[in-house]
Each structure stands twice: as structure tokens, then as C-alpha cells.
């Protein structure tokens, strides 16, 4: 009885309470509870399942299982440290220098073949790079790098596939190199390791990422080398836009800002330089497929970053166009991403070439990298049917990549 | 069947043993088993201390033998005879239970040191549980330690197993793959059954079915058994009925995880949602677990042995590291209070 009365009173109170709330402020309490909460990594996986299963067909399951499993690393030997000792140490771990091996194995081939002429100069890989990896199917790990006797770190652990764009660039001593979107620094460091860069400009929009790049360079490259090579790390930032993070429009603006920054950079950079060729590495921001599947923080597949993701191919095209425009005729550009998506890879390359032909009357020639692919076939598994450029696909036996790279030469 | 066996057994006890019978038996035995004469003697010495007095049918012979207990030679002879008598009794009982001559010989030679009466008791208990003579033979040969169990323990355990529903024809499989069911501690069986019933919420019937189909669960650690069930239920989305039907619990956790996670990462297996729906059709559980690795790779996973090999190594390391991390996370809490 008492309970009944109590409930009655409660009902009354509730009703009264309900009446006092103005209509416009009444809301359904279960508002957001029904919306399923998907982590961004899962959204990424769903997205990949949809697009890549079409794109890769039967290959997709094996790529998928590799992306979701632990990746393999390569140890890029620091030439500014005691590299011979470090190499010997790494060899003792039964790792092997895949760059050296590929070049040694690759060399006799053209001699034996009908095409007696040595491969053209553009095939030449960038020199002086030593990168150790474990053999196919070996899942050992490298111990973390240590500080060497010369005050710099012994080696840099990176996805070995990231070295391919740098190798494909085919630097010669005394070249001037522009690295767009340089952070976190693996490729920039590799560029410096070649010992070919007379000038190196590295840019990254985000200050924090540029900071990371600086840190890497500090711990791997001695001060005097940094000065002599005239390494310039810039962050043509959208700092004033960056503060307003979270809003889509601001993000779009910040992308535009990046493009502008690139323009300013290239102009000011070219102003300083003589008429020498400029080599450009355009390692664009992309969906970073492997990373997006494992890291929740700042994941590009978050619902809030949808617009940004959709804008990516456009940004990539603009960056590549900027890179191509920064070179003189005869200069080379390597475009690279760490995504599997054709939309961000070959379509961007093809689209940009078309765009430059139509709008600027600039002819760009895509170089054939088949020979290059053959050199590194033992270490990486390549996607067999790319229209332009080469794509390293992850495989459990050689869990590197994904890495797309395409080399272009500006003709006019 | 069992009841009949017992009747026959009881009836047999009433038949008085005649000397001629014994004599025949002795000669046969002497011919056959001269080599084991020493062992037999030892056996009789042991038996004369204990079990003899219990059965009334042996009483008259003892009485008859009493006056001739003087000389060593006759004593030896008599002991032989006494053993023979006992053996004869056991043999004929066994024959009555439906064992063939070959089986009987096998049974007697499993553990020559065993008292025949003990042998008979254990075997009759097993027969009473609904086992056929043939499986009993095989089981005892495989696990002779059963013959050493005290009869009381055996009786208690049998009634417990009957309570669990493992009577009447269901025990054969259990005894083949897990003869420990008789030797292990009562508490251990109870804890396993408890986990199945209370933690995993299987019905009584399902528990019986599980014990019958995959008796190896009895060997498992209760905590790990619960984890295995939870993995099936929550991670793989298998319902109780299917866990029972597919014998899921008999496979090791490592094997299950390797194959399931591999399929999952390949995109060929999905955990069903609340309504049991998936975007891709999941392969049948028997195509995942019951098949050999080669067949699993060829038909279900469509992958290569090398890749699966590498994957297993990677997964083992992942597991090891996640366990390490969990231990790290757990230790401050333990240290706190």
C-alpha cells in the first residue's frame, strides 16, 4: 500500500517536473546510446574490405592478414656512425643487406642478356644505402638502436619498403633534393645517407611532425654534416589554422595552406639555387593503411575526419603538381604513398600528368620501373598489375609495405 | 544385461567345486604356465593372508587342506592348487560375464601380481556400468593402474558416474580416452562439472553429452576450460548446443586460436552479431577444427603452409606479449591492498 502511494507521488512529481521543462528543451534521454560506437580502426578495416577486395580480388585475404599482423622492419645503417662495425653486428644477427644483395645479383643479368647495353642512368639506384632485413619468413626483430661511439645512433629502424622511393630516385653526387612532407624522417634520413645531397630541403606542414623530423636528424646526423649539406627543415605551417583543429572547414583550409606553403617553399628555394636540376621526393599524406588499422589516435578513418579523407586525392594531386613544377625540365620526381588504394596512387599520378599537360603545357614522362622491381623481387612482394609505378604489397613472408612509388621525369 | 551377469555370477558361487575340477585345472595350468610358477606362488602367499576367508565357497577346501600342512613340498603343491582354485573361480566368472578365453588370459596377464578377487571385483564393477567385455579388456590393458584401485573407491566412483549420466553404453568412449576418470580425485571431477554447469551454464544433459563426447575436458584446468568456453561463445559466436555438437572443447586452445584468428584476419570468419548475422558466410566449425592442417589451409583458409607457419610464430609472440602486458597491468593492483 505504502509503495503504491509512494509510486503515485513519484509519478505526480515526475509529471510536474515534466511540465516545468519548456518544450524546446525536452529531449529523449537515449539519444546517443543507440548509435553504434565503432572504433576508427574497425571503420578502416570495413573500408578496406569494401574497396580492396574489389581492387585486389584473390590477393586481398593475404594482404589483409599481413596488415593485421606484426610488420617487419629494416635497419638502415647510419653512415655517419661506424657503419662497418654496425654492419658486421647486424650480419651476426643473420640479417642481410638487401640493397647490396639486389645490386650485386642484378648486375650480371644485363650482361648476359641480349640487351648488352648497361641499364640507363635513370635506373641507377641511389648509392651508399645499407639496409638490413631478415630473410623471408624469418620473424626475428632487431634490438633497438643504440648510441654509437661517434655520438649518433647506429641504425634507424623503418619499414624497409620506405627505402624503395629513395633508391628509385637515383641520386647522383651533388644533387639538390626537395623532400615534401618529410616527417617522420625515415626517407629524409635515407636521402642524407646517400651522401649525394648538396642541398636538402625538407618540409612538413605540421610543426609537431617537423619537430619529430628535427629530432631524428639530430640523433642520426652530426651537426657539421647538417650544416654542410645545407639541410633545411621547414614547416610552412598553418599554425593559425592548426589551433582550430576539429572543424572540418578549418581542416580543409589547412590543406589549402599546405599547398600554398609548398608553393612558397619551392619558389623561395629555387630562388636560391643555380639552374641545376632539382630532385623531388613527394611522399604525400595518405590513409596510411597499416597505421590506420592499429592506431586509434588521430585516425584518418574517424567519422569526424571523413571530409578530410575525401579531400586526400585532391591534396595529393596538388602536392605532386607542386613537386613537378619545382623541377626544371629533365628533373625527376618520385611520388610515394603508403596506401594500397589506386585512388591515391596511380589515379593521382595519371590525373596530375593530365592536369599539367592541359593547364601548364608541361609534358611529364612516367619511367618504367620493371627493372627496379626485378632487382628487389626477392625481398618484397610487388603487385603485378600496376598501370604506372610499382606497389609493394604486404605478405606474411615479407611483411613490408604497403608502399607505392612512381618515378616521373619532367620533359618540358 | 548387467543384472543377468550378476545373477549368473551369484549362481555360480553356489556350485560346489569338486576336486576333479581342480585337478584338471592344475594340470592345464602346469602345462601352460610353468614359467610363471614362481610368480604364482608369490601370489598365493599374498592371497592366503587376505581375501581367502571372505568367500564362503573356498572354505571347504581350506578345511580339507588343513591336515596336510606339514611338509614343504606338499605345502607348495597345495598353494599351487589353491591359486588354481581361485583362478578357476575367477576364470569361470569371467567366462560367465561373456569374456572369451583369449580375453580371460589377457586379463589375467595384465598385472600378474593382482589378487584374482580384486581383478574380478574391478571388472564386474565395470561390467555393471554397462561396458561390454571387449572394451573392458582394451581399457584395462591400456591402463593397468585401474586394477590397483580399492574396490570401495571403485564402487563409489561408479555410482557417481551413473549419477552424471555416464552409465549404459556411454562409458566406453570415456574410458578409452580418459581412464583417469576412475583414478582422479572426486573433487577434481566435481570442479570440472561445476564449471560446466554453473560458469558455462550448460544443462545437465549437455554436461553428460560433453563428458561422453570429449572426456579429455576432465584433464583440463577448470579456469582454462571456462576460458575456452568463453572464447567459443563470445569470440567465435558459437552457441551452447553447437559447442556440444561440434566437440569444441576437445581441441587445444592454441590450435583453436591459431586457426580462428588466422581466418578472422584473412577476412573469412566474423563473429556473428546479436542476431547471429555476419557479412561473410562463416565456414563450418568442423572444416576449421576437425580437419588436418593441410586440408584446413587448402579448403578453408585458401592459404599456404609457409604463411600459416609464419603467422603461428607471430601469433604466439603476440599472445606472449599481451600476457606480459596484462601481468604488468595486474601487478600494481595486487600490490595495492
TrEMBL record, chain B:
Chain coiled-coil ranges: none
GO CC annotation: mitochondrion
Any one GO BP annotation for this protein: rRNA processing
Domain of life of the organism encoding this protein: Eukaryota
Keyword field contains RNA-binding: yes
One Gene Ontology term of the molecular function aspect: RNA binding
Keywords: Mitochondrion, Repeat, RNA-binding, rRNA processing, Transit peptide
Keyword Mitochondrion among record annotations: yes
Localization annotation: Mitochondrion
Alphabetized InterPro entries for the sequence: MTERF (IPR003690), MTERF_sf (IPR038538)
Family statement drawn from the similarity comment of this UniProt entry: Belongs to the mTERF family.
Assembly mode: Heterodimer with NSUN4; this interaction may be required for NSUN4 recruitment to the mitochondrial large ribosomal subunit.
The name this protein goes by in its record: Transcription termination factor 4, mitochondrial
Source organism: Tursiops truncatus (Atlantic bottle-nosed dolphin)
Amino acid at each position: 500500500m505504502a509503495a503504491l502511494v509512494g509510486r503515485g507521488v513519484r509519478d505526480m512529481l515526475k509529471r510536474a517536473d515534466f511540465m516545468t521543462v519548456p518544450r524546446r528543451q525536452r529531449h529523449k534521454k537515449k539519444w546517443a546510446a543507440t548509435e553504434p560506437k565503432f572504433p576508427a580502426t574497425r571503420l578502416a578495416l570495413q573500408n578496406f574490405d569494401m574497396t580492396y577486395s574489389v581492387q585486389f580480388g584473390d590477393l586481398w585475404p593475404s594482404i589483409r592478414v599481413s596488415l593485421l599482423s606484426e610488420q617487419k622492419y629494416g635497419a638502415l645503417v647510419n653512415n655517419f656512425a661506424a657503419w662497418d662495425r654496425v654492419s658486421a653486428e647486424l650480419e651476426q644477427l643473420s640479417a642481410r643487406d638487401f640493397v647490396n644483395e639486389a645490386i650485386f645479383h642484378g648486375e650480371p643479368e644485363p650482361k648476359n642478356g641480349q640487351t648488352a647495353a648497361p641499364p640507363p642512368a635513370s635506373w641507377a639506384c641511389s648509392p651508399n644505402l645499407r639496409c638490413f632485413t631478415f630473410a623471408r619468413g624469418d620473424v626475428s626483430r632487431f634490438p633497438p638502436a643504440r648510441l654509437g661511439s661517434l655520438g649518433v645512433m647506429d641504425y634507424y629502424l623503418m619499414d624497409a619498403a620506405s627505402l624503395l622511393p629513395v633508391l628509385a630516385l637515383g641520386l647522383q653526387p651533388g644533387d639538390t633534393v626537395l623532400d615534401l612532407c618529410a616527417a617522420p624522417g625515415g626517407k629524409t634520413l635515407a636521402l642524407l645517407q646517400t651522401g649525394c645531397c648538396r642541398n636538402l630541403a625538407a618540409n612538413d606542414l605540421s610543426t609537431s611532425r617537423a619537430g619529430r623530423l628535427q629530432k631524428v636528424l639530430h640523433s642520426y646526423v652530426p651537426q657539421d654534416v647538417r650544416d654542410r649539406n645545407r639541410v633545411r627543415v621547414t614547416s610552412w605551417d598553418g599554425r593559425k589554422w592548426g589551433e582550430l583543429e576539429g572543424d572540418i572547414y578549418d581542416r580543409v583550409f589547412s590543406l589549402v595552406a599546405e599547398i600554398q606553403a609548398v608553393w612558397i617553399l619551392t619558389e623561395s628555394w629555387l630562388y636560391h639555387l643555380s639552374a641545376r636540376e632539382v630532385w623531388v621526393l613527394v611522399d604525400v599524406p595518405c590513409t596510411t593503411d597499416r597505421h590506420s588499422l592499429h592506431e586509434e589516435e588521430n585516425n584518418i578513418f574517424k567519422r569526424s575526419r571523413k571530409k578530410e579523407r575525401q579531400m586526400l586525392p585532391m591534396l595529393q594531386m596538388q602536392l605532386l603538381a607542386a613537386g613537378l613544377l619545382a623541377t626544371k625540365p629533365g628533373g625527376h620526381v618520385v611520388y610515394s604513398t603508403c596506401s594500397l588504394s589506386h585512388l591515391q596512387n596511380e589515379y593521382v599520378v595519371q590525373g596530375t600528368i593530365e592536369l599539367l599537360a592541359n593547364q601548364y603545357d608541361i609534358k611529364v614522362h612516367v619511367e618504367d620501373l620493371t627493372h627496379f622491381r626485378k632487382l628487389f623481387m626477392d625481398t618484397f612482394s610487388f603487385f603485378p598489375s600496376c598501370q604506372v609505378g610499382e606497389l609493394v604489397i604486404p605478405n606474411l613472408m615479407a611483411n613490408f609495405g604497403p608502399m607505392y612509388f612512381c618515378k616521373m621525369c619532367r620533359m618540358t | 544385461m548387467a543384472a543377468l551377469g550378476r545373477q549368473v555370477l551369484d549362481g555360480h558361487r553356489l556350485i560346489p567345486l569338486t576336486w576333479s575340477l581342480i585337478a584338471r585345472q592344475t594340470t592345464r595350468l602346469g602345462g601352460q604356465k610353468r614359467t610363471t610358477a614362481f610368480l604364482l606362488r608369490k601370489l598365493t602367499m599374498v592371497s592366503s593372508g587376505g581375501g581367502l576367508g571372505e568367500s564362503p565357497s573356498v572354505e571347504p577346501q581350506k578345511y580339507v587342506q588343513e591336515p596336510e600342512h606339514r611338509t614343504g613340498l606338499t605345502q607348495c603343491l597345495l598353494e599351487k592348487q589353491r591359486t588354481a582354485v581361485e583362478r578357476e573361480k575367477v576364470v569361470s566368472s569371467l567366462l560367465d560375464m561373456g569374456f572369451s578365453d583369449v580375453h580371460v588370459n589377457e586379463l589375467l596377464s595384465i598385472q600378474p601380481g593382482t589378487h584374482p578377487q580384486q581383478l574380478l571385483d574391478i571388472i564386474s564393477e565395470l561390467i555393471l556400468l554397462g561396458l561390454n567385455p571387449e572394451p573392458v579388456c582394451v581399457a584395462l590393458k591400456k591402463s593397468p593402474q585401474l586394477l590397483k584401485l580399492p574396490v570401495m573407491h571403485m564402487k563409489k566412483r561408479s555410482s557417481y558416474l551413473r549419477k552424471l549420466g555416464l552409465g549404459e553404453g556411454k562409458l566406453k568412449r570415456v574410458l578409452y580416452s580418459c581412464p583417469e576418470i576412475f583414478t582422479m580425485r572426486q573433487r577434481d571431477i566435481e570442479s570440472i562439472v561445476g564449471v560446466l554447469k554453473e560458469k558455462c551454464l550448460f544443462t545437465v544433459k549437455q554436461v553428460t553429452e560433453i563428458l561422453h563426447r570429449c572426456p579429455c575436458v576432465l584433464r583440463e584446468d577448470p579456469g582454462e576450460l571456462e576460458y575456452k568456453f568463453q572464447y567459443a561463445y563470445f569470440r567465435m559466436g558459437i552457441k551452447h548446443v553447437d559447442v556440444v555438437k561440434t566437440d569444441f572443447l576437445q581441441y587445444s586452445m592454441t590450435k583453436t586460436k591459431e586457426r580462428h584468428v588466422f581466418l578472422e584476419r584473412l577476412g573469412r570468419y566474423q563473429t556473428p552479431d546479436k542476431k547471429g548475422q555476419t557479412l561473410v558466410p562463416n565456414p563450418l566449425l568442423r572444416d576449421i577444427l576437425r580437419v588436418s592442417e593441410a586440408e584446413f589451409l587448402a579448403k578453408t583458409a585458401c592459404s599456404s603452409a609457409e604463411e600459416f607457419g609464419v603467422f603461428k610464430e607471430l601469433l604466439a609472440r603476440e599472445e606472449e606479449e599481451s600476457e606480459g602486458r596484462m601481468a604488468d597491468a595486474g601487478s600494481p593492483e595486487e600490490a595495492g591492498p
